[in-house]
């Protein structure tokens, strides 16, 4: 199966960000993933406007924004001005997520919803008719390196069944290991956000890691 791999840039080395972007692009990364946090919805602050602008300016690859914020519609115009390609929102903190999703589409970007480990599929089922992607968080959001919540597996299974009826792709984020990529890509998950569990660890040989992941899944 042809999968998409996205680099979680909150894990990058910001002392040499330009080199990180170049090396990831040359290694074959498909997407650059930017986490935006407001310190309220999650207990952390994420990447800022300058970070997003710099990454977008220095790559020809798609750039996606994961809005871990309250009232995500307040951030949309900033993302539109930067030309962000894919925007994920958390519907549980948006009073009118359907309108926010519609606005994202009107500006030519792909719209996605992100769901926390504790968010039930039943609460977002109707929105699945309107989005391009669903980002399933396997860890409680806000910090890199957190433990995978095993009960999320059941949620992915439910989404894979619903995917047969509706036109959306499933992506995974949080503690994405080689074993999880192997398992879930075989079941129909199309994309994976890579952080400290795979890409940004060890010798940080991005080319070797990405090549290994894609070849392993292709077998």
Please, could you describe this protein's structure?
The structure is a single chain. This protein is of the alpha/beta class and 219 residues long. 33% of the residues lie in helices and 20% in strands. It has helices at 17-27, 49-57, 76-82, 97-106, 152-163, 178-187, 206-218; strands spanning 4-8, 31-37, 62-68, 86-89, 110-115, 133-137, 169-173, 191-194. Strands 1-2-3-4-5-6-7-8 form an 8-stranded parallel barrel. The mean pLDDT is 93.
Characterize this entry briefly:
This protein has 219 residues and is α/β, with parallel strands linked by helices.
Biggest sheet strand order reads 1-2-3-4-5-6-7-8
Helix/strand structural class: alpha/beta
Instruction: Tell me the number of strands.
Output: 8
- The general outline is globular
Radius of gyration: 16 Å
- Taken as a percent bin, the fraction of beta residues is 15-25%
The total of helices stands at 7
The level of helicity is 25-40%
Q: Uncertain regions: pLDDT < 50 for 5+ in a row?
A: none
List the helices and strands and how they pair.
Elements: E1 4-8, H1 17-27, E2 31-37, H2 49-57, E3 62-68, H3 76-82, E4 86-89, H4 97-106, E5 110-115, E6 133-137, H5 152-163, E7 169-173, H6 178-187, E8 191-194, H7 206-218
Parallel strand pairs: 1-2, 1-8, 2-3, 3-4, 4-5, 5-6, 6-7, 7-8
Helix pairs in contact: 1-7
